[in-house]
Amino acid sequence: MTPPLADSPIIKDTMIPDALQKGTTMLKMTDGKKKAVACRIDPDEGRILYKSSKDVTVPIESIKELRLGKDTRYYRLQFKAPEDYEERWITIIYIVDGTYKTLHLVAETRDVFQQWSLALQKLYAIRQGLMSGLGDFELRQLVWERQYWKGADEEGDQVLDFDDVERMCKRLNVSMTTAELKKLFTEADTLKRGHLDFTQFQKFAKVLKRRPDIESIYAKLCTTNGGKFDKAAFLKFMKEYQKSQLTDSELNDIFNKYTGSSSTSPNEPSDILSLEGFSTFLVSKENSAFSEQDRPIWQDMSAPISDYYISSSHNTYLVGHQLVGVSTIEGYIRALLHSCRSVEMDIYDGDVEPVVYHGKTLTSKVPLRDICIAIAKYAFVASPYPVLISAEIHCGLAQQDKIVDIMTEVFADAIVQAPLEGRPQIKQLPSPEELKGKFLLKAKNLYVTAQLAAAQAERLAAKAAESKSAAPPTPSSSSESSENDAEVILKEGVADLKEGVADLKKTWKKFSGGEEAKGKGEKQKPKMSFRLTSLLVYTVGVKCHGIDPDVQYAPEHIFSLSENSVNRLLKANIRDLVKHNHTHLVRIYPKGTRVNSTNYEPHRYWAAGCQVTAINWQTFDLGYRINQTMFQRNGRAGYVLKPEALRCPEKDLLSKRTQHFFDITIISAQQLPRLRDSRGEEIIEKSIVDPYVEVSLHIPDWSHSPFLPESATTAGAKYSPSTDATTTTVSSARTVSFRTPAVKDNGFNPVWQEELCLPFDCVGDMKELIFVEFIVRQQGQSEDDEPLGIYCVPLGCLEKGFRHLPLHDAQLSQHLFSTLFVEINVRDNV
After folding, report:
1. At what angle do helices 275-282 and 248-260 cross, to 10 degrees?
2. Cα–Cα dist 568/481, whole Å
3. Are strands 586-589 and 557-562 parallel, antiparallel or unpaired?
4. 564 dihedral zone (left: phi>0; alpha: psi -120 to 50; beta)
5. How many structural domains are present in the chain?
6. What UniProt keywords are attached to this protein's entry (predicted)?
7. pLDDT score for 699
8. Any idea of the CA torsion for 613, 473, 489, 348, to the nearest 10 degrees?
């Protein structure tokens, strides 16, 4: 009898009790309801199963978060469940069919809870480890064998007959005739018993997964080195093909690792890399296509915070539609656990304390205090660097003071504060290192807004007088639709404001409601709590009055631009925007009228140095994927140092414009996943897939004329220009794409050997702001349908040579066993 996965020597500490595999009774909790259900764990196939009104499967790799015991209190209180449930409560947050789902279970006893808790945490850790790139070959192989063995052994008799094997191969998308498959089965059935035990199954699987594409590469490398693959051949391969920057000593260590583990015969020389060792190396972390994602925090974190891109979320409180979605703490927890460093909240008056929701919509409300508690708990789990809380405050004075009370109580010394009077002048923004473990509140300071409006009015009046114009030109400004305070101020009388600027307290009284607005029918100015300004230190929200050199902003001033507003600046004044972003933070947010919460492509704005590009994390589209890929860099700190061209104006690197070709050979794919239904179950009934691969370069708008030679379009390149946002479409950058032909009836090991060449231009050598996306699709599939697999990576971080790309689903969960094998090169246009 084959030992289960949990008893393997590799993971021998992961013991799954028989009781959990057979099933225990749990209370399934929903809002206002509870129901007893039978729940069990299948450790081999990596699933949680329970029977409610229907059979439900939760694949462990689809789990995004486990919460246990007191960490589930928010839901226990929300469901009005008894307090003693808390110590036995398990919350599982997972994705099925592109949608976040939440499963709440309460164990009958504390002992059963402990068993479930330990089992889930261990199995979850194993799967998450396998879903963080490639590597762990032995464990990955064992998990594969156990998963497909268990899935094929429907009778549970610990052997597989031919029908079992044929059914498994159908599930695997294997392209073989019954006769070919029968031949392999017979060869594996060495005892001629008509079935395979687990050891024979392992041998069968090894033959089934044979890689002729790698065998061909290995044979070629041996041929060019006198018929053997020794250390000299390996070093040559790494330097010439893989363009490795490692030292000879480091390469020697890698060579020794894979020769030591790959010897299949006692007579085989230990200084020869076998085919098995070479194959294992090619799918290892040492040969990762995106090596930077495996590195800890390595960038210099001591530069001013304006020198970094900051992982940012938009409408963080929403987990669905902008008009009718649910406001919850989940959005904050989800974002923070993925290293998001800028979260948003729209704060309104509540019955007792302020609440957060999307104003003028049907979205639900959540107490500000609950959100702050969640932020405090999860803020620095994934990254130690500062969290920016971007708030739109719509409260009256009394609840503005409550905002201060709540934040200082919950965040304590971690929230940055400054005295109300006698503040020292800020000459330069602090660094992420200096702000470690801190919260920064960003909100509009109406007093500062008034100062800037008065100064702007004075400039406009001077220009009008100079040109003898009857009416001054409209200020060049962009911000949130709700941020219209400057216009209100101007309407209420510029002269009064000029007089008030000299006397801070007098002006402050005016803005806090101490003086009544003069004139009948005038719009009442918004009121602001004087205490609130103590929390606005390095991120003081102001309105944008343009980026003309005549407009002076303090280093701590941050304004917000809608995507279309910044698009206009990119076309008209990108140099000044880049210059402004050397010393100031700028926030970009999605067009508000696009209520389906789709995302712009953020690298379009990163290329101008904009740091805080807010993304709807509840929408899994291209903008989301680019954002997540960018912040896999630098140890997932949530801060990525901007390219040198955007940090060092004295070097004038932005004047360097170059043209290149991205050469990519799509060699093969390995075990493409089957699509799943709405319950998370694989769809087996449909025919074996006919896959093709589309490769796209997403390029910022850093020149008016893209590099697109006629040879590329003749060869089949598809070019899409950049676009601005509409009520239904997003702002996009340029795209150049190619696609391969489809391979018929093979989703297990399709081979293309298709050479593609994608042209691109670059400014300042900022290749890390160009993103490459590989999408594997089924022939005839609509672009709106979920693809078979996706891989996205910054071009400047993509390693050259022969690489395996781990494939993900549309929500960026990695498929455990699916890869795309490619050869990569970048060359200059000379």
Report:
1. 120
2. 17
3. parallel
4. alpha
5. 5
6. Hydrolase, Lipid degradation, Lipid metabolism, Transducer
7. 96
8. -30
List the one residue out of 124, 90, 91, 92 whose CA is nearest residue 110: 90
172 and 253, same domain (yes or no): no
In a domain, 615, yes or no: no
Task: Name which residue leads in pLDDT, 566 or 459.
Answer: 566
DSSP run (H or E) holding 710: helix 710-714
| 259 neighbors 234 (Cβ within 8 angstroms) | no
**CATH value at residue 759:** 2.60.40.150
Could you identify the residue written with the tokens 């400054």?
Answer: 418
| Domain containing residue 259 | 212-272
On whether both 679 and 764 belong to a single domain, the answer is yes
What's the pLDDT at 595? Answer: 66
Of 752, 754, 750, 779, the closest CA to residue 690 belongs to 779
Pair (55, 155) in one structural domain: no
CATH classification at residue 93: 2.30.29.240
Q: Band of the pLDDT at 14, cuts 50, 70, 90?
A: low
CA gap 631, 622 in Å, rounded = 14
Which alpha helices (DSSP H) does 471-608 contain, by range? 485-491, 494-501, 504-511, 563-583, 603-606
Instruction: Give the global pTM.
Output: 0.88
Three-state DSSP string of 139-152: HHHHHHHHHHHHHH
* Per-residue pLDDT at 521 exceeds 60: no
Among 105, 130, 155, give the residue marking a domain's end.
130
| Residue labelled with tokens 């918004």 | 526
- Residue ranges with strand state E in 338-424: 342-348, 355-356, 366-367, 387-393
Q: Which of 387, 314, 763 lies closest to 575 in space, CA to CA?
A: 763
